[in-house]
Specification:
Two copies of one chain form a homodimer.
Chain A lengths: L1 E6 L10 H9 L2 E5 H7 L7 E5 L4 H13 L4 E5 L9 H14 L5 E5 L4 H9 E2 L5 E5 L7 H13 L3 E5 L9 H10 L7 E6 L7 E6 H4 L8 E5 L5 E3 L2 E3 L8
């Protein structure tokens, strides 16, 4: 009785691992956020799908755990990597609760995937080739003050910063807020980049300055990169050198 | 004339993306660090391999770029993701130089892979489910003072810390040094974990306290995780809750 938590990468078959593809082929039920189950249906047409909108993660994960405990071959899918802002943590927590309540709790098996930090970086060139911080600007589950402190610390440490969930309808100005914090520590000319809809229709890739980044309108499907002091633009690409050695 | 820079994940066929597998199948030459080309030979036996030991990255990448410019179907492989401490950055730099010197420079196409932060996290449970910093302890290309400052900043910001290259023969005590810096900000009971030889023979997975982590002997093939203030051990797993909401 295993519940697979599968990272599908950006969403196409090409971007998932061979292991993820094999696991999804062997399952009867695929559960996940509606946007991602819709991406999978063309590749795995003969599965049962169980999808719920955003903010119903706990209900969806609890349902999947219960089905797995009954012996169903089921996978919970997440975009990117399930361990990075995905369902792996919540499922481990729910599973630990279930284990206290019943002897028939399913085992959790995490199948890692390519996270947006990596798939977006590949489109931009090589923005992350040195130490970096990954920070989500969503304050749904994290107090804004904690997010702001982390932005300050990452900027102070001159780490490349990769921002997930840079904006939503309710948080239209959060990317600007984040840029303003980073601008306390870094030049307005700091090389930045973003990728929208990585590997999907309408993909958009842009390298720009921190000052310009402040004025773009990002959305939930945008991944943002703020360079460190040695990040440069090279032929339209965003490149952070490995360490500080000369090439 | 394209040069593919391919992330192979932990090293087996299962852990690479479908795209990475297809690209390697379509290439004639696979170039990389000896350890990784040896891992690939059983899966792609009919290729030409070009491998060099550590610290000859520049020579190897220059050679591959020149071959690609001549029209050879060639891939440079990296373990994990080529954009995270991999060859993507160096290749973009060398390519920009080549473009200034010749009209026949190859284009760089980065095929992302599952980085050790993700593949190790999957083995431990869900240590990275919230904001995190990725820091390499190798001072080969980065001054030690910069590494130490980043460790301080990441600890101050209560980000989960994922350490790459935590030790080598010449840097046997660097993990202890890193733990001592983090201990200035965090409890000795902070939940930590490490994975050695992820997905390979002799894989070792352990959850332990920061105090205990200080005393382990890591090596180049170990990935280390230092939890944030809410990271917990749950049934032998290392789990960082998503945000601060109750489950």
């Amino acid at each position: 009785m295993s519940l697979y938590v599968v990272g599908i990468g950006p969403g196409g078959l090409d971007g998932m691992t061979v292991e993820a593809k094999n696991v999804l082929e062997s399952c009867h039920i695929i559960a996940g956020y509606t946007v991602y189950t819709e991406l999978l249906k063309p590749y795995f047409p003969h599965k049962k799908y169980y999808s719920t909108p955003m903010k119903q993660e706990k209900e969806r994960c609890g349902w999947a755990l219960a089905r797995a405990a009954e012996g169903e071959a089921i996978a919970v899918v997440c975009s990117g990597d399930p361990g990075i802002y995905g369902m792996a943590g919540l499922l481990c927590q729910l599973q630990a609760q279930a284990q206290q309540e019943t002897v028939r709790a399913a085992e959790i098996i995490v199948i890692p995937g390519v996270t947006a930090a990596s798939s977006g970086a590949a489109r931009l060139g090589a923005p992350l080739t040195h130490d970096f911080a990954v920070i989500s600007l969503s304050d749904l589950l994290t107090p804004l003050a904690v997010i702001q402190k982390r932005l300050r610390c990452a900027a102070m440490g001159d780490m490349v910063i990769c921002l997930y969930n840079p904006a939503s309808r309710k948080r239209a100005d959060y990317l600007r807020m984040a840029c303003d914090i980073v601008l306390e520590y870094k030049s307005p000319q700091t090389v930045c980049g973003y990728v929208r809809q990585i590997g999907r229709e309408g993909e958009e890739v842009r390298v720009l300055s921190l000052e310009q980044l402040r004025d773009i309108q990002a959305d939930m499907f945008t991944t943002v990169y703020i360079g460190n002091d040695s990040t440069m633009e090279l032929g339209g690409k965003m490149v952070t050198p490995r360490g500080y050695a000369d090439v």
